[in-house]
Amino acid sequence: QVQLVESGGGLVQAGGSLTLSCAVSGSSSRLDTMGTMGWYRQTPGQQREWIASIHSNGNTRYAQAVKGRFTISRDNAENTVYLQMNMLSPDDTGVYYCNSLREVLTGTSWGQGTQVTVSS
After folding, report:
1. For residues 84 and 22, is the Cβ–Cβ distance under 8 A?
2. CA nearest to 9, candidates 18, 74, 93, 92
3. Under DSSP, is residue 117 helix (H, G, I), strand (E, B) or coil?
4. What is the DSSP letter of 90?
5. SS3 for 14-39, per residue?
6. Per-residue pLDDT of the chain (120 residues; tens, 9 = 90+)
7. Distance CA 74, CA 38 (A)
C-alpha cells in the first residue's frame, strides 16, 4: 500500500510563502511509477478542489485560482512532490493533500493532509 505524507504547512501572513512536501513511502513504492501527481485543498463546507498537477513528462497544469503564484515540482529520486506557494492570500487557507491521478479517479484513498492558514 502506497503512503503519501504531506508536510510543511503552517501559519503565514498574507503575501508570504510556504513550501509543501509530499513524501511517497511504503514497501516497493516509487514516485516514478505513479504517473501524474497532483495537489488538492479543502476548506470546511467545500469540496476538495484540484489546484495543480505534474505529469510524468514534467508538464504542469494549474487551477486558475493559483496560476502564477504556485509551482508544483517532482523529484523522482527523492520520491517527493513539492508545492511552492507564493503571494499567499487568506483565500488559500485550507488543508492541502497530494495524490496520484489514478487514486483520485478511484476516489478511495487520501492522506491526512497539511494545514495552511493565511492571516490578514
Report:
1. no
2. 18
3. strand
4. G
5. CCCCEEEEEEEECCCCCHHHCCCEEE
6. 789 999 999 999 999 999 999 999 887 778 888 899 999 999 988 999 999 999 999 999 999 999 999 999 999 899 999 999 999 999 999 999 999 999 999 877 899 999 999 999
7. 10
